[in-house]
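sry for the spam today, last one i promise. struct tokens for design, 194 residues
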């Protein structure tokens, strides 16, 4: 473990000095871990890939700012978190989201585009809200919205009709939206706009 820490310090120092080989080694060492973190937050494979790629591009472009004595992983994850927040804020100008904001205003839900987003808080709230769902609703919601399965695939795997999948999904989304009113803008971005 101590060897690994020293090795990462050496790699960070080499990267800071412009070594593309060190960059590739750090990329290989952290890609899966970072991808898992980002995907865990947004539940979209394509967006997670883009954010991780953008994160590593920023690492390369800002390599001169690396402090090899500080944990590289912490710096990397801070960049990824900023990329996640930028991705969310970028979606705020989407016409679909603008319609949703109007819906929120009509229903007296407060949405502040400039407020800080706490993605960990969102994950905790979602986990708590899912406790209000039936086991089948949870199963369908997770398969469709978190794992990206098509409704036809879910119907086949669960041996139910596609209409039943839509019904369970609709019920689960309505319940979760109601349970997560304070975080409705993030809920919309992650699960409705997909």
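last one done:
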């Amino acid at each position: 473990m101590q060897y690994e820490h020293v090795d990462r310090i050496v790699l960070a120092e080499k990267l800071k000095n412009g070594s593309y080989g060190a960059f590739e080694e750090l990329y290989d060492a952290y890609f899966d871990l970072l991808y898992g973190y980002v995907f865990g937050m947004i539940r979209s494979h394509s967006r997670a890939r883009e954010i991780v790629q953008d994160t590593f591009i920023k690492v390369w472009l800002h390599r001169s700012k690396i402090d090899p004595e500080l944990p590289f992983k912490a710096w990397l994850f801070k960049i990824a978190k900023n990329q996640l927040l930028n991705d969310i804020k970028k979606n705020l100008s989407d016409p679909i989201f603008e319609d949703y904001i109007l819906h929120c205003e009509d229903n007296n839900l407060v949405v502040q585009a400039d407020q800080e987003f706490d993605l960990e808080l969102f994950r905790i709230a979602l986990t708590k809200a899912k406790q209000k769902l039936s086991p089948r609703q949870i199963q369908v919601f997770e398969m469709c919205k978190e794992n990206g399965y098509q409704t036809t695939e879910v119907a086949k795997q669960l041996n139910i009709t596609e209409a039943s999948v839509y019904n369970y999904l609709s019920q689960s989304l309505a319940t979760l939206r109601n349970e997560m009113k304070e975080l409705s803008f993030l809920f919309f971005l992650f699960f409705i706009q997909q």
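Residues 122 and 183 are 7 Å apart (CA to CA). ok im logging off now
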